[in-house]
Amino acid sequence: MTSCFRHTVILLLATTLIGCSSSAKKPIAAAEDPKQITTAAYDIRDLVANPLDSKVNEALAAELMKTIQQTIDAGNWNNQNTSIQYLSGQLIVKTTNQNHHQVVSLLGKLREASGIQVALESHVITVSKSRLKAIGVILPPEPDGIAGTFLDADQVDHLLRAVRVVPDSSIFTIPRITGPNGQPNTWRVLQQQAYVSGYSEPNPDGKRKEQISTAQSGIELEMTPTVSADRKYVTLAMHPRVSQLLGLTPAVWEKAPGEKLKVQKPNLAVQEVNTIVSVPDRGTLALLLKGDQEQIKKSNQQMGVPLDTAALLLLRPTIILQHESEQQQFPLLEPKPK
Questions:
Q1: In this predicted model, what pLDDT tens digit does every residue of 181-213 receive, in sequence order?
Q2: How high is the pLDDT of residue 144?
């Protein structure tokens, strides 16, 4: 993420948060003068901390200070009575008491936003399309050729129960993935097959050494979830991929055909989708993966399963809000009402 983009995100978020209900702000005591100038230190290490790069910390802190100056009492930070600076993970702010309360509110809202996580539960089902239709799962194709639909909890349970008793079908459950909102997640379970992909430059004696590459096949899931502002939907930028190595095809090395050196070319049957879709919180998306039909038929024939067997991805995102999760797990830590 570029510095410009990070600043834009922080600025837009802060602009929205400043307009939130005043109930989130710390009330000013009756004896406290809102216009009085005071100095306070704010620990922001949780917002900018990067143990690997102090320069990143300083850049993020600079963006945060600029955001505060642009969204809280904008235009009044350049006089002698007000200032803001970053020092070893702390914001040293000199301003009015009224502005201090807005800084506290803004930092609290930024922490709340950064505390959002998304848990992803998924299954990869291999089943024939005809059997899938008989079970009752209809996948209407979209204009871009991607076939998918949303299922409720009862439909998911029915589908999984039905597939378990279907011969030549399988269900692979991917371990639950939990990560920060807006951050990419990757999960892989792969088999590797070494093969000769080329040759080195000739040695003084004229001989070449084999160059070895690796063909990978299995299940891969790349996903970047983004939670909507109303916390009701998760937009998933996804690239699921299921592949099977059908074999290694021998061929003549093209860079030196006169030497008649042999290399191998992996023959993979791949089913995948690269798309972006919005899924309701705790809703389940059923998505049919696509691929070269001839290759898929060869793969199915080699596996001894029906020729129309395909890979179906079930994906269920759950939005996790840090403060709600803490209330559920540690209810005794909540302050008692006065």
A1: 888 889 999 999 999 999 999 999 888 999 999
A2: 67
d(CA 112, CA 317): 19
Query: Using an 8 Å Cβ cutoff, are 89 and 45 in contact?
Result: yes
C-alpha dihedral sign at 125, 153, 290, 272: negative
Q: Is the dihedral of CA 274, 276, 282, 288 positive or negative?
A: negative
First to last CA, the chain: 45
51 vs 130: CA distance, rounded Å:
53
pLDDT reading at 336 higher than 60: no
Going by C-beta distance under 8 Å and a sequence separation of 6 or more, which residues neighbour residue 8?
none
Per mean pLDDT, which range of 50-54, 126-130, 299-303 is the poorest? 50-54
CA 291 to chain centre: 24
CA count, 13 A, side-chain hemisphere, 201: 1
Adjacency order of strands within the sheet including 37-43: 37-43, 90-96, 83-87
pTM over 0.90: no
Q: Which residues contact 156 (CB under 8 A, 6 or more apart)?
A: 284, 314, 316
Is residue 101 within 8 A of residue 24, CB to CB? The reply is: no
DSSP helix/strand/coil, 224? strand
Q: Look at residues 267, 269, 268, 288 and name the one whose alpha carbon lies nearest to residue 277.
A: 288
CB contact at 8 A, 160 and 173:
no
d(CA 270, CA 291): 6
In 9-131, the DSSP E strands lie at 37-43, 83-87, 90-96, 117-128
The amino acid that residue 160 corresponds to is L
Tokens of 126: 């291999």
